[in-house]
Amino acid sequence: MRRPDSDRASSQRSTPRAGRGTQGIGERYIAGVPARIMRPRLVFLTCLFSLVCFGLLMVYSASSVEALHENDSATYFLFRQFMFTVVGVAALEFIARVAPDSWFGEGALKLALIAMMILLFAVFLFGSGSRGATRWLSIAGIQFQPSEFLKPFAIAYSAIMLDRVFSPGGNINEFLKGMGFYLGASLVLIFIQPDFGTILIILLTIMCMALFAGLDPKFIIGAILAGAVIIVIALVVEPYRMVRIQVLLNPWADEYGDGYQATLAIMAFASGGLFGRGIGNSTMKYSYLPEAHNDYILAIIGEEVGFLGTLLFFLVFAMLIYSAFRIAEQATDRRGALMASGSAVILAVQFLINALGILNVFPMTGKPLPFISYGGSSIIVSLMLAGLILRVSHESARRDEYDRRRDSFAVMDESTAGVPHARGERSSRGGFTVLNGFASESDARLRPRSAPQGRPQRPTPRNAGGGYNRIDLNSDPSTRLRTDDQGPRVRRDYHDR
């Protein structure tokens, strides 16, 4: 709502930051939006723009040699990534500002999750894959990964369910039933593909959201222990997962076999040094490091910009996540706070899994680096998650503390103070008497009121003709005035003597 001109001057004075969701007197405004809401949004947009542009630059740098060799054009992957980014920005704008609130209701999200289950099932019938995993689906010549697109819908639906279960009268059984059918079935289909990394990212995010909603940490510890047991079983069942653990422990044991990418990534970071070789001067991208512009693009970043450039890149991404949590703090309800914080967590978890895998601290799971790695599904889904965060920020600007208080007002069906009576008619019973504000017919004409028993009646100022009687102060007005020799009256204080 636009502020009147008279209030703009007072808004220039800074005031201490109010509590969560509150608006102080004289609060600063930026472009008509409270500064407490606009500041984290501007920081988030600045970091997001920087990461997307840096991602396009690094995709071109890491893929130019391979693109020129295979497609006779050094900008082949850059042009495709730019088109994917345009689609992602359009999805971000639609989610943040265009989509109606009904699209984020429980019914609409259930339909979306059912559609995702159908797509995940269609992967086994019509999908394509590589290295023993079937994860991609092609529709009308457009190839995408349905498991990636499950993330924003899972975040939005989990926020609604967690808000309901932790509200007064919440039912944990209804929560488990809804999550198990609409989300659990999709995770099972992803596990069969197999795509264990996506399942790990989604489950870790939901656990963090439950902790933010108010879940007892003891249940989180129990869930972590149960998850550790499941991970051990999954490692034993699939031999290739045990190979990744062996590579993590000693990548140089088979440097030309299973540990080939891990060793080359370490060599890329080492050759980058403190300041790097410079943008475009990487040597590992010359057909040495496979998937240089996909999952291993962080190794090319470390080689070209060095340790300081990589550290700056990490700081920008950390500022993006921090501003997302600040946006979650300003949310008008718990659902919005959980949706923004969940989107921030899933971006941070995926970033850490990729970065720690490249640095050989965590087993490599094949998850792309958000906003940076080449791939249509990755960049579009990452921007969709950013759209969820910005939508919460826009919702916070639409409603403030006064709107929430106004919504809490209620009109009582019947009064508890008493039965209303016409003015002039007193209730015979004791207690409160409520007047309806209208005079009775008997009060239409003036009538003198009798004084109570034992008390003298006060004379009325009206005379018999209906006018007011004059009060005779004195026949001579000059006698009421003080003469010159009398002087002013002085109050005597006998304590001063």
Structural class: mainly alpha
Sheet with most strands: 3 strands, antiparallel
Helices and strands, in order, run as HEEHHHEEEHHHHHHHHHHEE
Broad shape: globular
Strand order of the largest sheet: 3-4-5
- Tell me the fraction of residues in β-strands, as a range: 5-15%
As a percent range, the share of helical residues equals: 55-70%
First-residue to last-residue Cα separation: 66 Å
Separate helix tally: 14
Return residue spans where pLDDT drops below 50 for at least 5 consecutive residues.
1-25
User: What's the alpha carbon Rg, rounded to whole Å?
Assistant: 36 Å
Q: How many DSSP-defined strands?
A: 7
Please give a structural write-up:
This protein has 497 residues and is mainly α. The chain is 56% helix and 5% strand. It has 14 helices and 7 strands. The strands form 3 sheets. Strands 3-4-5 form a 3-stranded antiparallel beta sheet, covered by helices on one side. A two-stranded antiparallel sheet has the order 1-2. A two-stranded parallel sheet has the order 6-7. The longest helix has 37 residues. It is globular and about 120 Å long. The N terminus is likely disordered.
Keywords summarizing the entry:
7 strands; three-stranded antiparallel sheet; mainly alpha; 56% helix; single chain; 14 helices; disordered N terminus; 497 residues; two-stranded antiparallel ribbon
